[in-house]
Amino acid sequence: MITPGVGKTHIAVALSVAACRAGFSVYFTTLDDMVRQLKAAEAAGRLNSKLRTYLRPGVLVVDEVGYQPLERAEANLVFQVISKRYEKGSIILTSNKTFSEWGQVFGDEVLATAILDRLLHHCDVVSINGPSYRLKNRLAAIERETAA
């Protein structure tokens, strides 16, 4: 959680691979893609069918929570997924926001609290802070170029 570029997605992918090797089914998506898919399904009258996409796997990975704020209706769709998976399937989330900022992400403090209540009940939180690996490598390359 927290700082961009420190390997949150990389860790989520590694955990996903380990889950697959252990025999679990895994579905990987970004929050933005999941919300877009759920909204389209809702508009087409197929929300329950699309929800099963996110409820069926043993492990659901939702990447990039907090990069784009959600409207209340979108946040309600996310709540449905989290609520229906609660105590039924594992969820791995990556986020660049602290939990105290999730009210802004989900556009509603009460809804964010309800989501966090379910997520944090049986979880391990891994906070990662440090410099971005992408920027670190790029800055090192720039320094080599300017030193030459």
Could you characterize what this model shows?
Helix 4 (72-85) links the parallel strand 2 and strand 3 (90-95). It is globular and about 60 Å long. The chain has 7 helices and 3 strands, in the order αβααβαβααα. It has a single domain, classed as P-loop containing nucleotide triphosphate hydrolases (Rossmann fold). Helix 4 (72-85) packs parallel to helix 6. It has a 3-stranded parallel sheet, sandwiched between helices. It is of the alpha/beta class and 148 residues long. It has helices at residues 8-21, 31-43, 47-55, 72-85, 102-105, 109-121, 133-147, and strands at 26-30, 59-65, 90-95. Helices cover 55% and strands 12% of the residues.
Under the CATH scheme, the architecture is: 3-Layer(aba) Sandwich
Which class in CATH terms?
Alpha Beta
Radius of gyration: 17 Å
Shape: globular
Largest sheet: 3 strands, parallel
Question: From the helix content, strand content and strand pairing, which structural class follows?
Answer: alpha/beta
What name does CATH use for the topology?
Rossmann fold
Oligomeric composition of the shown chains: single chain
H and E string: HEHHEHEHHH
Mean pLDDT: 91
Number of domains: 1
Strand order of the largest sheet: 1-2-3
Sum this structure up briefly.
The protein is of the alpha/beta class and 148 residues long. 55% of the residues lie in helices and 12% in strands. It has a single domain, classed as P-loop containing nucleotide triphosphate hydrolases (Rossmann fold), CATH 3.40.50.
